[in-house]
Design goal:
Layout: E1 2-3, E2 6-7, E3 12-14, H1 23-31, E4 36-43, H2 44-48, H3 52-56, E5 67-72, H4 76-88, E6 93-98, H5 103-106, H6 118-131, E7 136-143, H7 151-161, E8 165-172, H8 183-192, E9 197-200, H9 206-216, E10 220-223, H10 233-241, H11 252-270, H12 272-287, H13 293-302, H14 306-321
Parallel strand pairs: 3-4, 3-10, 4-5, 5-6, 6-7, 7-8, 8-9, 9-10
Antiparallel strand pairs: 1-2
Helix pairs in contact: 1-11, 4-6, 6-7, 7-8, 9-10, 11-12, 11-14, 12-13
Length: 322
């Protein structure tokens, strides 16, 4: 697959997730087989105000490329200026957020609030595309609620403005992350545009991914929550897509080794204190579904020592073996 001049080896991408898809996790997912990884959403306004923490979110490692940096905002001129900053930072693609359902984002007219404003969305698309030389993509929801399903219309406007590809999460803003994703809206969007369409929503296994592609005719899949604590889903998707034997669920030993590596990478990137704090969320995802998980999540949440973190995993592994 090609998005503009960017070659994507396999049509499976890591979706942007706040607090999750930072540089260390993106590198892990690329190693596991993701064809493209997308950053946490970055505020265009904060970039223009030269916010230090926001600028740090633009750091890119060679091992994660191709990578998209996702911007959010609602002012065309600001997003165009921010897009230039992102391009200069080395991003391969710029993604625009029209999917975030969080109240504080929507209250500012950003994220999924733009699903109610097709004309403004078009102005934003046009401004961003004209500002940079790299591809601009868009991630959107099916609509605001079941009475306002605007994804097909907005996707057509995106194509008209020169957007390279769209990702459709088959849920409305009203659903947040509850209920079942409506894959049919992804199919409808695909029928209404000529550019690549990525489907998103309820992909937790390789079988889910292939079913989404066959059901909707979409060109690729963007995996969000299904990759949290399970970056191996990309290896499984890649194998299934290539008609090869799907790798089995990884062993506890491999899972725990990845947790240790993930913590090490986070600390190297963000410092020991912040790294171990942020690893707590990831640890909960890695341990999800395991026996005694709640007990060890609580223990991990209390530790501030990376050596203790490793000892807890060793202890937990022994408990699971017994």
């Amino acid at each position: 697959m090609e998005l503009g001049k960017v070659k994507i080896a396999v049509p499976f991408a890591l979706a942007p997730m706040a607090g999750v898809t930072d540089l260390p996790f993106r590198v892990i997912c690329r190693e596991m087989g993701a064809g493209l990884v997308v950053s946490e959403m970055v505020s265009a306004k904060a970039l223009l105000f030269k916010n230090v923490k926001t600028r740090a979110m633009l750091q890119i490692a060679p091992a994660e490329k191709p990578v998209a940096i996702q911007l959010f905002g609602s002012v065309p001129q600001e997003l165009a200026a921010a897009a230039k900053i992102v391009e200069a930072a080395g991003a391969d693609i710029i993604d625009f957020n029209m999917g975030c359902p969080v109240n504080k984002i929507v209250a500012n007219g950003e994220g999924s609030a733009l699903m109610r404003k097709p004309e403004l969305a078009y102005e934003i698309f046009k401004a961003m595309v004209e500002a940079v030389h790299i591809p601009v993509t868009v991630k959107m929801r099916s609509g605001w609620d079941e009475t306002e399903i605007t994804a097909p219309q907005i996707a057509q406007l995106a194509q008209k403005a020169g957007i390279t590809a769209v990702t459709v999460h088959g849920r409305t803003r009203g659903q947040f992350y509850s209920g079942k994703a409506d894959w049919q809206i992804i199919k409808t969007v695909k029928k209404n545009v000529d550019m690549p369409v990525f489907g998103n929503g309820d992909v937790f296994t390789a079988a889910d991914g292939l079913k989404l592609m066959s059901t909707t005719g979409c060109d690729g899949i963007m995996v969000g929550r299904g990759a949290e604590g399970n970056p191996w889903i990309f290896a499984q998707l890649k194998a299934a897509w290539e008609g090869k034997t799907i790798p089995p669920t990884v062993s506890i030993k491999i899972r725990f080794a990845m947790m240790e590596r993930h913590l090490k990478d986070l600390m190297a990137f963000k410092g020991e204190k912040i790294g171990i704090q942020e690893m707590r969320h990831h640890a909960a995802a890695y341990l999800k579904g395991l026996p005694h998980a709640a007990e060890y999540k609580n223990k991990i949440n209390k530790t501030i020592d990376p050596d203790e973190f490793k000892k807890l995993l060793q202890e937990y592994e022994q408990v699971l073996k017994s």
